[in-house]
User: Fold this.
Amino acid sequence: MSLGKWVGIGAGWFFGGPIGAIIGYYIGKNFFNGNNDQEKAYEISLLILASLVIKADGKVVREELNYVKSFFASTFGLAKANKYFEIFNTLNKQALSSQLRGVCIQLTQSINHASRLQIIHFLFGVASSDNEIHSAEINLINKIAGYLNINHHDLQSIYSMFLKNDSSIDKYYKILEIEKEVSIEEVKKAYRKLVMKYHPDKLQGVSDDIIKLANEKFLSIQDAYEKIIQHRS
Assistant:
């Protein structure tokens, strides 16, 4: 399927639903000028969902705000990120929870599975940036994953990548989405499957900067595989 069939022309898919309504009301469509609009649409969707996750536990933690700002600065460069900072500050003052389902459904209809997995990876990064993933944040990300048609195994795999205080071998099996009892052949098979699923080349409708970021998740899978092989040896 061509990229055009995934995301329409420019950011047309973005303006046609609840995401476009949020942008039109709070930000203004003048942010889009026909240059890389589909990529900007995806990036603003990250801001909308990050804002909801940050407020999920009833408080706004500075570390989580700083994570989002640092993420956009390191991913896109400070010049481009400054505009996103303004948008994020505006969105973070709004009550957008009633729009969650519509936003996620619009994304599900408009971007491919690999790009939706990247959203979940980003949101767990936000939630874990204060060294604690609150149960309310986990519940919200679970809900978002459901709306994005991300299955339980993929969700647990990504979640395990952010368990900073867990260095047990169990963590690495969860990342590879397998049980500890499987054979070494099954370990290798699972690794090859995830390499295909999470390879940055699978992303569609996103900027080169986001594709570079996907390498972080990809490297986590490689690290988990190597740790398991070492443990088996």
